[in-house]
Amino acid sequence: MIENNIYNTIISPLTECAASGHSLSVGDLCRLRDNLSKCTDENEQKFILQQLSPLYEAYIKGKKPFVGYFENEIIRKFCDWDVAFGTKIANLDLIETAISWADNNSEVRVEDFISLLTCYSKACPNEQWDDLEQEVWHEILKLEVYGNRTKAGYLVLLHGFLRIVIRRPDPLEQQKFIDLFIENWDYLKLVYSVMIRCIVDCGHKDFAGVANNVRILSRCHPYIYIFYSVLSERFEDLCQSGTDREKLSKHLNKIMEIMNTTTQDCSHLDILCRIFFPDSFKEYLDKNKLPSYDEVVNELNEMKNKVDSLNSQIEQMAQRMVNAVNASIPVGDIEKELLRLSPGTSYDVFTQVNSLLTGNKAWMEKASDIKQKILSMRDNPTIVNGNVYQSGATHDDRSKHIELGDNSNQLKLEDK
User: How many whole angstroms separate alpha carbon 257 and alpha carbon 214?
Assistant: First the structure.
């Protein structure tokens, strides 16, 4: 088939279809498929890939170049050509690709994405899957706090695919478990949701909703022991993340009843979940668990309370120094006390004292000099009473130490 004929019968119809946003007619679609089946020569295939490169690149990034399903199915087949003599598949970063598919889709296109991963594994037979798995674990860990349900779906598909490739090197066995993964996605994504503590590719409000969905779907019942096991293990974590404890406990008990009254199938799906969830994966999720939103808020509130308390202490210290100056305690003694503090605290106290003593002549005469000494402590070491003062340092020299007592008019200079 000469290039002009290929252009007119394959490239032009697909290009126009993508540009117009309309699907091909049934007749045009059949003719297009027939023409593609005749392109068995490698040079012809390379020509088609080159001419349709923008559409193909959009597809492998997760976009849908065409409106119709069958047109996208056609361009998906170009991945096989790319595996044979191209470079785009082989150069993919799979984690970035998973995130790109999540960004470009509102739903999880399971078969399309798994097909792309399969082509990648063919193009990169020497890929270091174990190293990539650790990176995927890290991305999955972040989902609990920073993820969304679509992104979780694609990362979970990537994780499951990697685990199958790692644990089942035989191609036939790999394909068997990959097909099982796709076939049971609607159930396995719920198991994954509980395991990674992030709802995957479904619209349930919380984990009680996820558990209830498993309870009412009869097709899940032969394998419900898998979900029960994971839910029991993750129960406390899920309650701490905001799921209503009473509701979740109620669904857990009902799931146990179903498990005890339904024959459980401990065959291939059980093996698949053992592949997906090794002890090392669960230990990683538990050991490196990121704080939840509520935990972060509580920590911020605790920090705020500590800051408020510190500010209150600084205000009290500043007020006592002001009272001491007004009681005619030498400003030089106040200066020594300020320079014993860490640079940051010293400056905060000085600022408040200075604002309250603008009318005190004795203070104002030395205020500028005291300020400069405090500022110099931030960047340069200063020797005072034989001690070296650095930024952020604390000092134990108390040979001359001012005690500010509860009585605001008392300030004592003592030899320790």
Answer: 13
